[in-house]
Write a structure and sequence with these properties.
Layout: H1 2-17, H2 39-49, H3 63-74, E1 86-90, H4 93-106, E2 125-132, H5 138-155, E3 159-163, H6 166-170, H7 176-182, E4 188-197
Antiparallel strand pairs: 1-2, 2-4, 3-4
Helix pairs in contact: 1-2, 3-5
The structure holds flavin mononucleotide.
Flavin mononucleotide (FMN) binds near residues 54, 161, 163, 164 and 206.
Length: about 220
């Protein structure tokens, strides 16, 4: 947990200045302490240390920080710059608790999860990402937008987690009032939800990656 926060704060300071990896008031055990971090180091460390966070502190993400996260999202590339996405951010407790009640009704076993507070992995802020039902690039564009949002959040010490499991619950009849509150454009479908919040609990370990899936061909 401390490691996540430290990593986030460290990156924030580094990104703000593209300078030292720590500021003088913070303890830093890195060998590079006192040295300048390159843009490449800042960016790659941010990408490689981002993890799906599945437990959060109760306070909602600061809306100014979230505005920056959204801005980073919409600066993602999109086919022909069509920006085929709709993003709706929710931090209203009644919305989150209402959808949670519906999810628990449908899947009572959810309550057995340790520290269960809500269906969004206990996140206090959730972004709903939607794209046109008929679109050549919508899902791809939304994927790029989503990752931009998650990486920018991580650089500010904000955890996130993509939640595909939210979609069938949101599409269920019981959740219709909540879908209506999202005011998605006509013909759009909900693709994924993204949990955002300040991390609580232990630092997640990176699930193993299969490096053989990507290689040069000659
Ligand atoms: C489209 C998509 C849907 C996902 N849905 C869920 C989900 O419903 N619940 C969950 O806990 N994690 C979900 N995840 C997170 C993945 O499990 C996670 O990204 C993966 O295990 C790799 O871990 P990392 O993000 O920490 O690197 C989803 C990720 C993606 C990209």
């Amino acid at each position: 947990m401390k490691a996540i926060i430290k990593s986030g704060i460290t990156l924030m300071a580094a990104i703000a200045t593209i300078g030292c990896c720590c500021n003088k008031e913070q303890e830093c055990n890195k060998e590079c302490c006192g040295e300048e971090l390159s843009k490449e180091q800042v960016v790659t460390e941010n990408i490689l240390t981002r993890r799906s966070v599945r437990d959060y502190k109760p306070e909602a993400v600061d809306r100014e920080q979230m505005a920056k996260v959204i801005e980073c999202g919409i600066y993602a590339p999109s086919a022909m710059n069509k920006q085929t996405w709709a993003v709706r951010v929710v931090d209203a407790p009644d919305f989150i608790e209402g959808v949670t009640a519906i999810a628990v009704e449908q899947m009572p076993q959810l309550k057995e999860q340790p520290n269960f507070r809500n269906f969004f992995r206990n996140a206090p802020t959730v972004a709903f990402i939607a794209c046109p039902e008929e679109s050549y690039s919508g899902e791809y564009d939304c994927g790029l937008l989503s990752e931009n949002m998650m990486l920018s959040a991580w650089s500010m010490g904000i955890g996130s987690c993509c939640l595909g499991s939210v979609v069938p619950v949101m599409n269920s009849e019981a959740a219709k009032p909540y879908m209506e509150r999202l005011q998605l454009p006509e013909g759009y479908k909900l693709l994924v939800a993204i949990a955002f919040g300040y991390p609580a609990g232990d630092a997640p370990v990176a699930p193993e990656r299969d490096a053989t899936k990507a290689y040069y061909v000659e």
